[in-house]
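quick one: ribose-5-phosphate bound model?
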Amino acid sequence: MNETKTLVFSLFGADHFVDEFVKGQGFKKGHLVRRTFPDGESYLRYETPLKGCEIIIIDTLNHPDDKIVPLIFAADTAKDLGATKVGLIVPYLAYMRQDARFHPGEAITSISFAKLISKAFDWMITVDPHLHRHPTLDDIYTIPTQVVPAAPLISSWIRANIEKPLLIGPDAESGQWVSQIAEPLKIPYTVLEKVRLGDYDVKVSIPTLADFPNHTPVLVDDIISTGQTMLAAIHHLKALGAKAAVCIGVHPIFAGITTQTLIDAGAMRVVSCNTIPHDSNQVDLSQSLIQAARNYVNI
Ligand code: R5P
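yep, here:
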């Protein structure tokens, strides 16, 4: 094991992950300075020598457009400075939801973005990407990729915190997470039907809850973005007279809403994974990411 050769960097607020990587794990923290020139262009400088080193850049990609250009420059510069391999750990992978051309002339940004990242990096690890029309990341990424599942950790959180949970997925796509979380706990689960009429207009159908009296509804989705999906589900559960729901999102984007928005609508509690820093973070993915990274680095 060479303790000094795998350097880990963060560009945009992934310091909490970098700190875990360097705690006796054999990874070394690298220093990368980034600032923005008055005209909005990015300045980058590696303060840690890279020649002959493998490096990992950890960055989560909520608000991706501000982050992508510096990220690509950071990967390119690392290779230019002699890094032997440049890996990307992206706890929240952006640009997965526009995965088809729904209207003529639209960009399929999942594919364009995958090409960009595949050119810049040697490998990539992420947590629960939004795989819907692309069955796997290999469909669109040409570099080796690994998906770290949040389900085992969410199951553990539910086991420790909720009595008599009834897991509810708000739409067909959430079925994959809901079943993975429910099965090890041997708890009941159901998946709703969702119709998204627009960015801020979501309707869901809730089946009868008569078979599950006294259960606590636990709504689980991969992404909480505008929160409209969670809000529609909370409203329907309230209308059915269910107990207040616990809302769990793997990736807490919270675009234009807050945790309080869901609490005010009737949620008992809002919980997320720390793939994006947020006040709802309760489930820590660090150790799973470290374990996954060991598959790619010489450590
Ligand atoms: C969509 O298919 C996803 O699984 C989520 O349900 C969706 O991204 C949530 O978005 P929002 O919070 O904007 O309703």
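Helices lie at 15-22, 64-80, 109-120, 151-161, 175-185, 228-239, 259-265, 286-293.
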